[in-house]
Structures are given as structure tokens and as C-alpha cells.
Specification:
The protein has 117 residues and is mainly beta. The protein folds into two domains: 51 residues, SH3 type barrels (Roll); 54 residues, OB fold (Dihydrolipoamide Acetyltransferase, E2P) (Beta Barrel), CATH 2.40.50. Helix content is 0%, strand content 52%. The protein has no helices and twelve strands. The strands form three sheets. A five-stranded antiparallel beta sheet has the order 11-10-9-1-12, with no helix packed on it.
Amino acid sequence: MIRSGRVVKSHTRSYDDPLRVRKGAVVKISKRDLWNDRYPWLWGTADDGKEGWIPESWVEVEGEKATLLRDYNAVELTVTLGENLTIIDESSGWYWVQNVRREFGWVPVECVALDLM
């Protein structure tokens, strides 16, 4: 369900050239971490050398490799206080959003207050 929200805490993206992979792609996994001590994320490297965090629920892991269960783009969106966002998806403590400039990316859930419907 698409929702709207407003940025209540600014966020700056972590890296400029993130991992982008298609469903069925295999990535090398080099570490696992919990976001907010709750959500498991994996650091993956694609065949083209691009790296990024992937929600563990989006992959099937076999040893040090993982197969994507859906298309994935690890791009984070830099957002500022008061900015309006359209929330398209939610996964593992992050929202996939679009801003008014029609840019897409991931933003931590705690940075966004949902608008009342």
C-alpha cells in the first residue's frame, strides 16, 4: 500500500554507487549485521564489484553466496527535515520512498512520520 510521510529526522546516504541486482542474481556475502538490533542485513558484492546492504529476507543464502528473490537496489536517499515522501515499500526497518524531485531510495523508518489517512 502506498502511503505518504514527512521526514522527522534527516538522513544522508551511506555511499554513492550502490549494488543493483536482478531477481536470480547471485552475490557474494561477506558479513551479516542487525539493523537496530532487530533486522538482519547482509553485505553483498555483485559480479560487477558493486557492494551494498541487502535485507536477508530478500535472498536465499547458501554458504557465502546468496541468490536474490526479487530485484533489488541498495540506493539510499538523502532526506532533510520536513521533506514530504511517498512510501512505496517497507522492509527490515527501512522505507523505499520517492521524494518530490522523483528520486527513489531507502530511508530508515525512524526518520519518517507517516501521515494520517
